[in-house]
Amino acid sequence: MLVMRRRAGESLLVGAGVEIEILEITGTRVKLGILAPDSVLIQRKETQLTRDENIIAARSVRQRSISTLLDKLAVPPDAPANKEPNGPNQVASEMYLAVGGKNIRTAQARPRYE
Amino acid sequence: MWGTIHGFGPQIAIALGMPRIHTKCFGQVEYSSGESFQFPNGVPGFEDEHAFVLLERPAAHPFLFLQSVSNAKVCFILLPVLAADPRYKLRLADEDLAALRLPAGRQPRMGKDLLCAVLVCAAGEERPEPTINLLAPIVVNLKHRIGIQAIQTQSGYPYRQPLVPPNRQEELAACW
Fold first, then answer.
1. Using the beta-carbon criterion (under 8 Å), do B25 and A98 form an inter-chain contact?
2. Which fold, B3-164?
């Protein structure tokens, strides 16, 4: 990674058409001004990460993957966790507290969507 | 049995002549147009999807499904963020508050009128274990029926957090 020091009011150039100016530095934040052709997409990195993650998440939604997701988190009624309230598996029933205080183990019917 | 979310209570659309949407995984669902949620900017990657319905199913509790009204292929699995992390701190920037039509200068409380939920990526070919995106929760003003994806820029929250922490995966596997 190229590292350079710049002060407020100074600029740097990226390639032929992109100029980034340091406009203001306050505390931990830097205000940047960016000049670039319309064809250059400029966005926060988090937005790009979120876009990529959203696309993968949307693609992951399938009947089978939903069943697997619920299977994975729902403990079947006859699981050892239910029989040994003080056993090592007890945490399984307490981990995912939903809004309203309901517990994910209400999903113990292990539904299939087929 | 399906319900679309109206506030936080399930409401089942049974009246005749209601519009129907084709859902990705659950066939057709009827809803009344007042039950959809507007996402004026869509969400990153799906900028053209401006209307969604929230679907819930008791057997899938606490997961919810955010289904695009206009595009059956676009559906997300949601998990209320407090179910994933009871200590989650939501911070909305001024522009997010304005987009949600919430008063400026004050952080809203998650709850009755404000749904905050993370997107779940189910396990599959691309992801061996399910993950959740704590960096960019979906935030919905249930009163005004308007939603955004609010990226938590300064939070340090991960965008690819295992839904089940690795140590818990072993314990769950032992249950079987």
1. no
2. BH3618-like (2.30.290)
